Amino acid sequence: MLYQTPANRRINTLFRILTRANPIWGHNVRAYVSQDSVSIGGVTKVVTEAKRPEYVPCNYYRDGLGQTSLNHLKWMMQKDVLGQDIFLLGPPGALKRNLAMQYLELTNREHEYVALSRDTTESDLKQRREIVKGTATYFDQSAVRAATEGRVLILEGVEKAERNVLPVLNNLLENREMHLEDGRLLIPAARYDKLREKYGSEELDKWKLVRVDDNFRVIALGLPVPKYRGNPLDPPLRSRFQARDVGTMSYQVGVKRF
């Protein structure tokens, strides 16, 4: 038998713990749903009525979810309550998207969905210019609509986007600000409310200031790079997210879901 150094033994022990099929939780997590609130493992979030119910996912959440999924949903609710954006990492598959949709359905949140690719440009996230009756008109895209309407922006496939595309959202994630092509400026809700009290809404409209809703959140879905092919997030942009490795579910859990 080959001699192992203490460092190698610690690494092997850690590897065995991390690769267990069934992780051990300290206690069972339970979800409680009422008409005006949702509670998962002691974390509670108030549920409000959606303005556009067609933007709320449906048929994703079901009773009897396993402890793995409930712990992921609990973590997402903690970050949502704190006002933080989320980055779910995991291998290829629909698990990351299903978790995001389950959470949105559970909390009755509207969402905007963007599937990123190498062909995605800045205009696909901010504004798109089109010719209408001979005049150039700007139409808000998913990121802008989510920010102004208080929805959750889901970005799937962040590793596929070119490195010069996602930094467009950097200022929106950090400061809730964004300059738009039509001259408008998105600003955080707290600053907008103070300016409105001082100058009034009409004056802010003349300045082309737009309020970013307090409920605006971003959920990014991606593969870990360099294990998989793709472009890693730039450090400034990566620091804006709270990341979680969702891994894979066991065979028994996967069969139970279907």
From TrEMBL:
Pfam families, sorted: AAA_5 (PF07728)
GO MF, one annotated term: ATP binding
All residue ranges annotated as the ATPase dynein-related AAA domain in the record: 85-241
PANTHER family: VON WILLEBRAND FACTOR A DOMAIN-CONTAINING PROTEIN 8 (PTHR21610)
Protein name per the record: von Willebrand factor A domain-containing protein 8-like Protein
Source organism: Tribolium castaneum
Gene: AUGUSTUS-3.0.2_04076
